[in-house]
Amino acid sequence: RKEVEQDPGPFNVPEGATVAFNCTYSNSASQSFFWYRQDCRKEPKLLMSVYSSGNEDGRFTAQLNRASQYISLLIRDSKLSDSATYLCVVNMDYGQNFVFGPGTRLSVLP
Amino acid sequence: NAGVMQNPRHLVRRRGQEARLRCSPMKGHSHVYWYRQLPEEGLKFMVYLQKENIIDESGMPKERFSAEFPKEGPSILRIQQVVRGDSAAYFCASFESYNEQFFGPGTRLTVL
Predict the structure, then answer these.
(1) Residue A96 is nearest to which of B43, B48, B89, comparing CB atoms?
(2) B106/A43 CB distance under 8 A
(3) Which of A22, B59, B93, B110: CA 20 to 30 A from B38?
(4) Does residue B34 surpass a pLDDT of 60?
(5) Exposed e or buried b for every residue in A27-42, given b needs 16+ CB within 10 A?
(6) Could you tell me which chain A residue has the CA closest to the CA of B95?
(7) How, if at all, do strands B43-50 and A60-65 pair?
(8) How many CB atoms lie within 10 A of CB B32?
(9) Band of the pLDDT at B10, cuts 50, 70, 90?
């Protein structure tokens, strides 16, 4: 089993749709969690950290379920500019062990 | 506060030449990671370094590839005798405890 797995995608959704991405991780000792966004031919950029209590930033909501070792990202009212690859990242021990998921590609269509 | 810097942004080499990629971490960061991304593929971890130390090089090919992060100056990823399969985007990221990684803009290596 891979350490971090994500929905394979791609997701093709119309503008205004709500879309959810899922991510599972294998190491129960994992300490911190992030969603990154990567545009084509650009570097990954932090979208949001994921906190135990869940957190929201505008149209984006991230949730963490430690018992199920599961992270989600919900995007409401999708915009064309949301089209990108979304990477789930797990830091195993607050230290050096960052593990990236393979990414889920989202295309928001007009 | 300058972000992570990488240079060159684009590098073209002929087969058999050497490629040197540089990464300057964010100010105050002493941890650097290197990743490789082939076209249409995900990020692949290569190596993790702290100042003057290689902490984890489990993702680095055993031959031709080396990395360093000296006490002074940028981190260097060196690829000797490049082959066409080395063509990729190489990203570095820096990190400090309890925080996320910050990525540089990448170096796109093309081997002719």
Answers:
(1) B48
(2) yes
(3) A22
(4) yes
(5) eeebebbbbbbbeeee
(6) A96
(7) unpaired
(8) 27
(9) very high
Q: Where are the beta strands (DSSP E) in chain A?
A: 4-6, 11-14, 19-25, 32-38, 45-50, 55-57, 60-65, 70-75, 84-91, 98-100, 104-109
Q: Which position has the token pair 């002493």?
A: B30
- Best of A32, A36, A43, A99 to disrupt the B interface by mutation (most B CBs within 10 Å)? A43
Write the pLDDT tens digit of every residue in A14-32.
999 999 999 999 988 888 8
Q: Report which DSSP code applies to B26.
A: P
Identify all chain A residues contacting B89, using CB atoms and an 8 Å cutoff: 41
Angle, vertex CA A21, rays to CA A16 and CA A26, nearest 5: 170
Instruction: At B35, list the tokens.
Output: 């990743």
Give the Cα separation of B22 and B5 in Å (integer).
8
- Name residue, tokens 């991405």: A21
Cross-chain Cβ contact A44/B104 below 8 Å: no
Amino acid at B26: M
Angle at B81 between CA B102 and CA B10, to 5 degrees: 40
User: Nearest 5°: CA angle at B42, between B40 and B47?
Assistant: 130
A102 and B42 in contact by Cβ < 8 A? Answer: yes
The label of the residue with tokens 């891979």 reads A2
Contacts of A43 in chain B (CB under 8 A): 91, 103-106
- Token duo for residue A94: 């607050």
Q: Which tokens is A84 given?
A: 């990108």
